[in-house]
Amino acid sequence: MLIISIDPGTVNLGYYVGRVGYCRGGECDENRVEHIQWGTIDLAKRVEGKAKPSSTDICKVILDEFIPSLPTDEHILVLVESQMYSRMQLVAHTFWTYYYPRCVMVSPRGVKHRLGPLETCGGHDQNKKQMVDLMLERRYIDVKGFSKDHMSILHNAVDAYAMALDYWLTNNYLKTYNVTSLSLPLRTEI
């Protein structure tokens, strides 16, 4: 099963693509993950000629450029983080509408509590940092070579990966000890 996991945003849209059922050299292990790609995309930069693009412009970039750049499969599930603010809700619902009925809206607080538990009393940036620290501590990600400049864009991609990981673990697709560290280069372009 191919999973595409999205942390919606207009400046930093985080995403992760992976597959359960890793095959190499003719042998398959249904309980392993193949990490395909992950990254953070600045969708607003993709809109030409506008200092502050509208939500409609952003959604057009998602449909015309971003979604076609992603891998596809007949067995696909798309996880999209639920959003509180209307502009982000529109971005989230663009994915939901495109991939319906193979799309699931995910509660970010639920993911953090199942993988954590994390303290959610901090602000938005503190919560993002806590998730990166947790994923590093459990060796779910390997970010050697990332500078402090990369950390601000890394947060959203880590949230997207955390949603996929939570889905696999919660639904018994994986056992914790089969999770290999994600060490792919972080993509920042479509």
Characterization of this structure:
- By secondary structure, this protein is an alpha/beta fold.
- The protein has helices at residues 55-69, 86-99, 108-115, 124-137, 148-170, and strands at 2-7, 13-24, 27-41, 76-81, 103-106.
- It has one domain (2-178): Nucleotidyltransferase, domain 5 (2-Layer Sandwich).
- It contains 5 helices and 5 strands; from the N terminus they run βββαβαβααα.
- The longest helix has 23 residues, at 148-170.
- It starts with a strand and ends in a 20-residue tail after the last helix.
In brief:
This protein has 190 residues and is an alpha/beta fold. Helices cover 39% and strands 23% of the residues.
Keywords:
alpha/beta; 5-stranded mixed sheet; Nucleotidyltransferase, domain 5; 5 helices; 190 residues
Taken from the alpha-carbon principal axes, the silhouette is: globular
Rg from alpha-carbon coordinates: 16 Å
The fraction of residues assigned to DSSP E strands is: 15-25%
Q: What CATH architecture do you see? A: 2-Layer Sandwich
So what's the CATH class? Answer: Alpha Beta
Please mark out the parts with pLDDT under 50 across 5 or more consecutive residues, or reply none: none
* End-to-end distance: 23 Å
Instruction: Tell how many strands the DSSP assignment holds.
Output: 5
Fourth-tier CATH superfamily name: Ribonuclease H-like superfamily/Ribonuclease H
Structural class, from secondary structure content? alpha/beta
Kindly report the average pLDDT value: 79
Tell me about the largest β-sheet.
5 strands, mixed
Order of helices and strands: EEEHEHEHHH
What count of structural domains? 1
How are the strands of the biggest sheet laid out side by side?
3-2-1-4-5
Q: Give the helix tally.
A: 5
Helix content: 25-40%
